[in-house]
Design a protein that fits this description.
Nucleotidyltransferase, domain 5, 5-stranded mixed sheet, 302 residues, binds zinc ion, alpha/beta, 2 domains
């Protein structure tokens, strides 16, 4: 029997929960990974518990469990609702604890999915040669996580950088935006649903001459510039479904460069904007990898 500590990792998403177990972020043995659709809390968390039970039977006690969760979620350890989902629009899930049911398998750490992805990219991916990194995901929503001094940034809640206001592109004047809270915040203008609401198809299906990529890249470039100004991050990773349009990243770099107007010494550093604003190095493994790093933290803090 293998005596190395075994960690559990749960990437809790709005459409699926990815469960994995292993000896480290990139060491998941065959058969120790399972995908459970997000339906009701009872069914989905029941599936997670069955997975952990199976791992415990096969591997012995778990040293720690990390949860990378969709949000908003309470990640404040001092709070009595620590580990619970907050005002998520996902029916049946507000108030559900993603931590309590798991605690009988070992110590649990929880963070947002984007903070976890940021942690994995910072340690193992795009940020290995940087001290600070932000990870932005552009998909159904827009979220961002931040690593500074080796830890994820958290506070009153967690970063919610998708909801910042942005300056409107004049070519995009007639569109009200889709955010139920703010209308035309960044998420309201540049998320996947906002793109569909305006142009009826995904960004990558639009022809090269269409202004959409420039408009969306412009909004996301404003976020990149804001991150550079506020957090002084050395790497800004853009991932998520909308980023699968490869025309977008160069547009974001160009918009950020325009917006910053030479104020920060980005171009004086090696690689300039190409090194500041980058795609994920870990692809879709960042979430589960980050959850595994959280599990190691949970084990260490016991
Ligand atoms: Zn908003």
């Amino acid at each position: 029997m293998n005596s190395r500590p075994v960690y559990g990792a749960i990437e809790a998403g709005g459409t699926k929960f990815v469960c994995a177990a292993g000896y480290g972020p990139m060491e998941v043995p065959d058969g120790w990974r399972e995908v459970i659709p997000t339906t009701t809390p009872q069914a989905t968390l029941g599936g997670v518990l069955a997975f952990l039970e199976r791992i415990r039977n096969e591997a012995g006690a778990l040293a720690g469990i990390g949860v990378a969760a969709f949000g908003p979620v309470d990640i404040d350890r001092r709070s009595h609702t620590w580990g619970s989902l907050l005002t998520t629009p996902k029916a049946g899930w507000p108030g559900v604890s993603l931590v309590k049911p798991l605690e009988r398998f070992g110590p649990v750490a929880i963070d947002t999915d984007v903070n976890a992805a940021a942690l994995a990219e910072a340690r193992l991916g795009a940020g290995k040669t940087a001290d600070s990194l932000a990870y932005v995901t552009v998909g159904t929503g827009i979220g961002g996580g931040v690593i500074a001094g080796g830890r994820t940034l958290r506070g009153m809640l967690h970063p919610e950088m998708g909801h910042i206001p942005v300056r409107r592109d004049p070519r995009d004047d007639g569109f009200a935006g889709v955010c139920p809270f703010h209308g035309d915040c960044l998420e309201g203008l540049a998320s996947g649903p906002a793109i569909l609401a305006r142009w009826k198809v995904q960004l990558r299906s639009l022809p090269a001459a269409h202004p959409a990529t420039g408009i969306i890249g412009g909004y996301l470039g404003q976020l990149a510039a804001a991150i550079a100004l506020m957090l002084s991050a050395e790497r800004i990773v853009f991932g998520g479904g909308v980023m699968s349009d490869e025309r977008l990243l160069p547009q974001i770099r160009e918009a950020a460069r325009r917006q910053l107007a030479g104020y920060l010494p980005v171009e004086a550093r090696a690689g300039g904007f190409d090194r500041l604003i980058v795609p994920p190095a870990l692809g879709d493994r960042a979430g589960i990898g980050g959850a595994m790093l959280l599990a190691e933290q949970a084990a260490g803090e016991r």
